Amino acid sequence: MTTATRRGFFAVVTALVLVALGLGVAFAVGDALGIRTEPSEQMQPAAAVVPEVAPPATPPEFTFDVPETARFGVAVDELLDAVADAPARDGEARVTVELIPGQEADSGPGDDGYELRGEASALHIFAFTEVGAVRAIYDLAAQVRAAAPITDLLGVHERSRLPLRMTDLGAVGVEPDPAEWESGDDYSHASKAFAAVVQPEAPYIDETALGAAYDDFEVFLRHSLANGSNAVAFPGFVEFVTFDDAPGGPVYADGDEHRDRALALRAAFAPFWERADELGVQVFLRTDMLALTGPLERALTDRFGSLDTEDPEFWQVYTAGLGELYEAVPALDGVLIRIGEAGAIYDVGGWDYYSALKVTTVDAVRAMLGAFTGQAEASGREVVFRTWSVGVGAVGDMHTNDASYEAVLGGIDSPALIVSTKYTLGDFYSWLPLNHTLEQGSQRRIVEFQSRREFENFGAFPNDLGPQYQWALQQLLAANDRIEGVWVWTQDGGPWRAGPMSLTLKSGFWQLYELNTQLAVELARDPDADVAAITAAWAREWFSDDPDTVEAIAQAMTRSREAIEQGMYVEQFAQQRVFAIGLEPPPMMWIFEWDILTGDSAVLDVMYSIVRDSGGGGVDAAIASGAEAVGAVEQMREIVSATDASSWRSPEMRESFISTLDYELDTLRLLEAYRAMILHQGQWHDTRSPAAREEWEADRARFDELAAGHLARYEGDLDHPAFNLTAAQLGVDRAERDPAMAWAARVLLVLALAWVVIGVLSARTRLVAKPGAAAACATWVASMRPWRARETTLGLYDLDRWLLMLVPVALLVGTRAVQTSFLSWTHLAAVLGAWTVFALVLRWCVGRRSPWPVIAAVGGVVVLRCIVTLVALSFTGPGGYWFAFWTDPVLRTAYVALAFTLFVWVFVAAGWALATQVGARRAAGFVLAAVGAGLLVPSLVVGAIGLERALTLWNDEMGLLPWGLARILGITTYLEIPGETAWYAAGVAAVLLGAGVLLALPARRGADSRG
C-alpha cells in the first residue's frame, strides 16, 4: 500500500469515526432535550350556573344563653358583627345552647354536627360537642351575612365531611409597604412576616410591633373560624429551638445569640399559639427541610461528616429540638414539612436562618419521616409531609407519579403522619389533570388548594374555582377514604411582592379571591354543597344586598374561568403534557413566570409546533381563543357596570370590581396580540410564507401599541401592576432582525461557496495562477487532505497568505455575528476569544517553522464549518435556525452530527498538517496544548464571574431559554448544572494543556539514538 493510499484510507476511517461520534452526540443532545408530548386528561367540572337570588332577609337582634368559654365568645362576636353589618334589623331572637352530656366520647371531640330547633324568635342548638355548638353559631352568622333567613338552618346538620380544614397564615405580620411593591421585580418567596417584630440584637423583640402582630393574628383567627377553618400553618421551626438536648450535646455554645434569640422568639410567639389552641385552632409549624443555622450546619457536619440526611441518627437532632419545643409550648399540634424547595429565594436576607435542598433520596425521606413520626407518636402530635418536590428520581416526581409516591412512602403507616398534596397534577395551573396520587397510599391525606392563584395574576382577576374544586373533591373522596382534610392557601404561594399589593384582610382587592377560600372550606364540609349559592353568598357578604346586583355579579363570575383559561393559556398547548430536559414544564410557559411574558425560542417554538399539530385549525383556532377570552371579559364588565351604583355596599367596592375588569381586559388584549404575533412568527419559520410574515408585522404593530398603553396605564399601579414585557421585547427585537440576518447569511454563504469552488477548480486548473486563487486552493486541499497542507502553501504570494488567514477569520466572525443577530457580544467574545487563544498558542508552538500549513488546514475546515451554519441561517435567519433545532429532530440530528464532525476535524486537520513538520507525537501535543489553552481561558473567566451570572448574560442576549428563569429559579438550579462546572472545565483544560506540553517536548537525543 502506497503512502498516499494509506493516508487516504486513514482519512476515510477518521472521517467515518467522527461522523459516528457526531451522530452519537446528536442523539445524546436529542435525548437530553427529551422534548415530547402526550395528551393531558382534563378535569370535567360542571358548567358554572347563575343561582336564583332571593330578596334579602333582615336579621333579628340576638340575645344568648350559651356557655361562657372563649370559643363561644368569639363565635357570638361574629354573629353580632354580622348583624351590625346588616343594613337593618327586624325583631329579636334568643339563641340557647344545650350540650348533650355523655355523648362526646362516642361522637369524638371533632364532631361538629348539630341540630337547630325552634323558630325565628327562639333558636335552640343541640350538639354533642362544643365544636358542633360553636359551628351552629358561625352558621347563623354566615346566614346573616348572606342575607338569608335564619330559619333556613332549622334541622339536623351532619358533621363536616373533612374534619381538618387548615389555612396558611394569610398576611399576618406582613407590612403593606408600597415601597416594597413598587419595583414589581422582587421574586422572593419570603413573606417577611413579623419582620418588624424580630430584631437582630437583644432583646430581639420589638414589643410594640409584637402587640400589633398579635392583634393581626387575632383578627385572622376570627376570620378563619368564621369561614369554617380549624387549623393554621405557622412559619418557623429552628428559629424557636435551642437544641440544648440534642444528642451529642448542645448545638449552640454558651452565649450564642442563636440560643438567646430562640428563647426570646419562643416566649414572644407562644401566646399566639396558645390563643389559637384556646379557640380550637390547631397550630402546625411550617418548615422546609433542611432548616439550618450556621452553628447547626457546622454541628451536623462535624458529627456526621456531612449533611447526611440518609442517616436516621442525623434526624434525632431535629426531633430532639422539636420535643423540647413541644414540652415548652404544649399548645403546638405538630410540624408541616416541605423538602421540595429551598434556598435563597425563600430565605430572608441578613438572617442566619436558611434552608437547603438536601433531602433528595428515597432513603433520606424515609429516614426523616421515621424519626419525625416516631417522635410525634410519642408526644401525641402529628407530622404533615408535603409531596411537593422537584429534582431527579422518585423523590423528584413523587408529587405526580404513582410509582414514585409508592417508592417513597409505601409502608410508612404511622398514625401520626398526614400526607399533603396539591389537587392538580403539578402546580396550581389551569388545564392540569386531577392529581391521581391523591387516590393512592395508606396514609392519611389532605388536599391543597390555592385561593390567590399565583400563576393567574395573584387573584387580581375574577376567578371562580367552585365547580372545579367541587369536582376534584368529589372524585378524590370517591377514590380514597383516607382523605380527611384540606389545606387552603388564602394568601401564600409564589413571590409576595412581584404582583399586586393585595394582602388578605389588609390591602388591595383581596375580597376577590376570598371567594375561593370560602368555596374550599365549604366544600370540605360538604362536597355536595351548592357552589353557585356560595358564590352568591360571597357577593352578598362583600358587595351588595340587592338581588339584581348579586345575580349580576354571580353571572359575571360564571364567565371568569373562560377568560382565565383561554386568555392566559394557549389551550392547544395547555392540553398537552409536555416533557423537556427531564422536566415537565407547566401549561403556561409563555408567561414565565407569574408576570413575565417570555420571548425565548425554546418555549415559543415548541408551543407553536404543538399548536400547529393540534388539529382543528391549529394556529387560527389558538388565535381565536384569545379573542374569545377578551369577549368574555367585555361581557363581564358590561354586566357589572350595568348594576345600579346605589345598590352596592360602597362606591369603592364597585369601583374596585370594575377597575379589575378593566385591568383584565387590557391585559388579555395585550396577550391576544402577543399570542397572534408569536404563532405567526413560528408559522413563518415553519412555512417561510410571506403571508405569515406580513401577519407577524401587523401583529407586532398592534402588540407595540397595546404594550405601550399597558405600561403607561399600569406601570407603578400597586393594585393592577403592569406585566413585565422585557423578555417579550427582546424576542421582538430578535424576530425583527431575522429577514435581514437571513439575507446576510445568504450573502456570506455565496461568498463562502465561491471561495470553496475557486479552491476546487484551482486544484485542477490553471486558475491557481490568478491572484487569491492559490490561497483558496490551499485551504481546500489542506482541509480535505491536511497531509498535503505544507506542499500547497509553498511559494504563496503575500496576498495569498493574507487571504489564507483573513478569509476564514472574517467568515467565522461574520457567521457568528449573524447567528446572534448582532445582539450577543458575550457569545462572540467567548467563541472568538477561545479561537484566538487556540491560534496564538498553536502559532507559538510552531515557532520558527512555517505557520501556513496549519493555518490553511484550520482555515479550510473553519470555512466548511461556517458553510454548514450559514445554510441553516439562510432560510429565515437565526429564528429559523433555532426553530428547526427545537422542533425538527431529523434536521437537528443531521446538523449536530455534521457540525460536530467538522468541529473535531478542525483539530485533526491541524495535527495532521503539523505532523509533516514536527512528527505525529509533537503535532498532537501542539494541538492538545492549544485546545487546552483555548478552553482554559474562557473557563477561568466564567468561573471567576460565576457560571449563573455568565449563563444569564449569554441567555439574555441569545434568548434561548426563558428570561425569567435566571431571575426566579436560576438557570443552573433549574437545569441542575453544578455551579462548579466552569472550574471542572478549567481542570479538564489544564489536563489537556499539560498533556499537550508533555507530548510536544522534543525527544532526547539519547533516546533517539537508541531507537
UniProtKB/TrEMBL annotation:
Record keywords: Membrane, Transmembrane, Transmembrane helix
Q: Does the keyword Transmembrane helix apply?
A: yes
Fetch the InterPro entries from UniProt: GH
Keyword check for Transmembrane, yes or no.
yes
Query: Where is the chain membrane-spanning?
Result: 740-761, 802-819, 825-842, 854-875, 895-914, 926-947, 982-1001
Q: What protein does this entry describe?
A: Glycosyl hydrolase family 67 C-terminal domain-containing protein
Q: What is the lineage of its organism?
A: Bacteria, Bacillati, Actinomycetota, Actinomycetes, Micrococcales
